Amino acid sequence: MTFLQRHAYDIGCGFAACLWPFFPRRRRLSVDNILKSGVTADPAEARRLARRAWCHLAGHVCEALCVPQVVGAANWREHLDFSEADPAAVKLLLDSPDKPVLLVSAHHGVWEAATNILSFARPMMAIARVMNNRLVAKWMKNHHFRGPVTIIDKNRGFTPDIVRRWLSSCSALTILMDQHASRGEKLTFLGRPALTFTTAARLAIRYGVPVVVGSFVRTGPYRYRLVGGAPLVFDKTADRAKATQVLNDRLGDAVRRYPEQYLWAHRRWRMD
């Protein structure tokens, strides 16, 4: 590895730390979210967590950009740690090429880097906002993802063609559920009311696809650990809102374990 690749995370963290004083609204929002979510009742600790989470975001972005140069087909397995994961979840992700899977996560840990690395194990699909800049979008498509990763434009949604491609390719479809959903169900996340998309539950119920819920958290340079429980399978008669709440609760458990790696600086709990 080059010096920049080896220290990408630290460089990102240092840059973010320098900018932290210039974003007072994000600081207040982060601290408020942490306190109201019950992660800690100590304002001083909340401020420390907010700063660490802000720095982690920048560090993750910088390290994720270097993943294609550091991780390859020959060494990808050594960068993922499944010691705390349920064996059935690991089998679904790594050893079930004939089964489509839903991987439900949040803006927690290293969602970008993990999707990239998992693509060496199986085809991946992910929902994301396509870059407005055509040159950046082209670079992301041709250089950022090393394995078979299909990016679904979040503005287009799940068309019948995309669903068919997902099921027929037996891909693992990654959905980040903690985005604000103005037309979502009023459920709870980390104990607070939160409008939530029910897309993941709808797909799981309709097509009988197993769901792996959790986060890949960073434990060291280019080392990522899956935190999550056993896979979930919902009956076709399951209630969509109740199933979504189960997913929210699983994600909340992971965030509480590693709160310093969550994106607290966004308006997840706005109700409009």
- The radius of gyration over CA amounts to 18 Å
How far apart are the first and last residues' alpha carbons, in Å? 46 Å
Gross geometry: globular
What portion of the residues fall into strands of 2 or more residues? Answer: 15-25%
Number of helices: 10
Low-confidence stretches: none
Helix/strand structural class: alpha/beta
Query: Spatial order of the strands in the main sheet?
Result: 1-9-8-2-5-3-4
Q: pLDDT average, as an integer? A: 91
Q: How much helix, percentage-wise, in residues?
A: 40-55%
Main sheet overview = 7 strands, mixed
Number of strands: 9
Helices and strands, in N-to-C order? HHHHEHEHEHEHEEEHEEH
Descriptive keywords:
272 residues; seven-stranded mixed sheet; 10 helices; 44% helix; 18% strand
